[in-house]
Amino acid sequence: MARFFKFLLMLALACVGFAAYSYLGARFTVGRMLGDGAPLSGRTIVFAYHGAPQLPGKQRVWIFTYTQSKLPGVDGAQIFVTFNGRVVATRPADLDDRLAAWEKTRLP
């Protein structure tokens, strides 16, 4: 019985480690995408375990939702990141271009 309990404990620790790795990888990817002094704020992060209905195939992704934006023409944004840290989609679809244009306006 003690070996079984130890096995369950090790399995639980492995699952927590995987979840932490996934979360940190997604945060790092989004942080690298937004850059320093990000124009988006009001962030909420959700893991869509049953799949994101906004995406084809209902992929399991981390959904970063931003409710406030300094970008012109953007009220809010969503970034969809897979569990291994790959950006699948953004809303608006041209968020990368808008972020690049915003960064160019900030440069002296």
State the strand order across the main sheet: 1-2-3-4
Oligomeric assembly: single chain
Overall number of structural domains: 1
Tell me the strand percentage band: 25-35%
What is the molecular shape? elongated
| Overall residue-averaged pLDDT value | 93
Distance between the termini: 67 Å
The SSE string, one letter per element, is HEEEEH
How many helices in DSSP terms?
2
Given as residue ranges, the uncertain stretches (5+ residues, pLDDT < 50) are none
Classification by helices and strands: alpha+beta
Total number of strands: 4
Largest sheet: 4 strands, antiparallel
Residue share in helix: 40-55%
The value of Rg in angstroms is 17 Å
Can you describe this structure?
With 108 residues, the chain is of the alpha+beta class. It has one domain. It is 42% helix and 27% strand. The protein contains two helices and four strands; from the N terminus they run αββββα. Strands 1-2-3-4 form a four-stranded antiparallel β-sheet, with helices on one face. The relative contact order is 0.16. The model has no long low-confidence stretch (mean pLDDT 93).
